[in-house]
Design brief:
The complex is a heterodimer of chains A (about 140) and B (about 475).
Chain A lengths: L3 E5 L4 H14 L6 E8 L1 H10 L2 H12 L1 H9 L4 E7 L2 H11 L4 E5 L5 H7 L2 H8 L4 E4 L1
Parallel strand pairs in A: 1-2, 1-4, 2-3, 4-5
Helix pairs in contact in A: 1-4, 5-7
Chain B lengths: L1 H9 L2 H26 L3 H18 L7 E3 L1 H14 L1 H20 L11 H23 L4 H16 L9 H15 L29 H33 L5 H17 L5 E3 L1 H9 L5 H22 L4 H15 L4 H7 L2 H17 L2 H20 L3 E7 L2 E10 L4 H6 L9 E11 L2 H16 L3 E5 L3 H10 L5 H7 L1
The chains are: A alpha/beta (about 140), B alpha/beta (about 475).
Amino acid sequence: MYKKILLAADGSENSLRAAEEAVKVASLDKQCVIEIVYIVNFTKSRSEVLHAQGKEELELSRRKKLESVEKLLKSHEHSYRINIMHGEPGPTIVEYANKEQFDLVVIGSRGLNSLQEMVLGSVSHKVVKRANCPVLIVK
Amino acid sequence: MTEKWKKEWFSNIRGDVLSGIVVALALIPEAIAFSIIAGVDPMVGLYASFTMAVVIAFAGGRPGMISAATGAMALLMLPLVKEHGLNYLFAATLLTGIIQIIFGVFKIAKLMRFIPRAVMIGFVNALAILIFMAQVPHFIGISTMTYVFVAITLVIVYVVPKFIKSIPAPLIAIIVLTIVAIYSDVELRTVGDLGTITQSLPTFFIPDVPLTFETLSIIFPYSIALAIVGLLESLLTSSIVDDMTGTESDKNKEARGQGIANIVTGFFGGMAGCAMIGQSVINVKSGGRGRLSTFIAGIFLMFLIIVLGDLVVQIPMPVLAGIMIMVCIGTFDWSSFSYLRKAPKSDAVVMLATVSIVVATHDLSKGVIAGVILSAIFFAAKISKIKVTKRNVNQNLVFDVEGQLFFASVEGFVDSFDFTVKQSNIIIDFSNSHIWDDSAVGAIDKVVMKYQESGNTVTIKGLNTTSQKLVDKLSIYDDSHAKLGTH
């Protein structure tokens, strides 16, 4: 079964639903590890640094965004890791998933910002096209 | 050491060379526009961008960060150039470098933590507003064609990047619109109307100013403002690059490096510069990570000027103004509006005050200093709120003290006691309080003595260890003989 699952999360409603599905899949195998990947894109990075008083607060504010997802995984007593990465969300997720040879990528169909999606194209679409493993898109 | 050196320079050669070229292309319009803001020839900003980038590639503490002539610095130097001329600007640039090195030696980067984010947000927003205001004379009320060119420039810089990612859109706008302007007989002001371009490398010279105390008193206020603003923007930029790349950097080395770069720049006829948020973001986005990217940006910029100098003077001013409007929009922190609603009122006031003072004085350093002082006052006001609540416990009267007791809060502390009480057992509980200084201890003395005067017995309890020590050392209240002796 699936042993390594990459859960792409940004704290949105969609990513929480994606987390629920990831837990369902993961529960099939006791040894399965879920890695929550949160991508901070470059433009966001600038304003987040500006709005945080120091590095500690910056990290805290990002962990807070994943709080709901983390809670969900904890309540199912599932082992997970959190990985905060930087870059353009689509390509960064694909590169990481391929490099670390994940068995499955779970991602919400739409993130926080629909305007951005219109301009830049959807992240989930990019991941489906270029990831080497199965991708589960959650509506 | 060599291992680290190799890694910082040559671990990402392909990415660094390509991103360095992209940055050089993006730097040209900004360096010219910032020169015009400072009231100097475009060459002064271009030379500065060249020397800043090349020197900081070696001396900086944050690999991959881009330093050059910047708007924040250009805005500060305009009055100096107007009143005293170019040589005083070069001298001020040298002195800025010296001050920054001193800041670096005394590890001033640590002090960055004391600058509240409300002030930093205000700084960034004020910078954007000032750069925008500096563009207004270049496109308002000149001619219809001027408006048209500004509009076309904006369309190009926002639409073209959706299709062409390899060449910076501002450069495309410049090339296309300069050609259109040359071949279409349109009457537009150009860069050449505001200054000249020399197609040569910068040369070493000592600024031609009298070495007197008077000179120093002219340039010093400018240099100190330049040094503060330069370091502020550089350290903010390095935090952003740290975060974007997920790596650490040496902030004190960066402060020193900025100083060295400004000294070299002053000797080679450039204006003071610092790190650039926008260009550094472009560099990281384009794949630049190492020192090589900064170095290539500087070298390639100079190469372009030598080759293309003739064309640079033909760039229409409205195109440059349009590009600067884009820079302002990119610089402004748009999340400030939600910040104003969500942040504590005092933070919002500090942010707005910082912006207003900068816009009124055209001096970023004044806004920052005022913002820091204002937020310190707010902070003191906030923590000087002290609460004393009265309750009765078995025939004893207990006063619970809650808050920090120090010079700013003693008045409120003394006033919140009820001194009509007579002949009872009073307990003052400091479990939720901390005693900070002499005036705090003095205030406790005052309260205790007042109660004792009206025949009460007073017990102090709940002091934490440090507070207890301070009280033991300074207080006279429990020495009842001393007290009685005074009466």
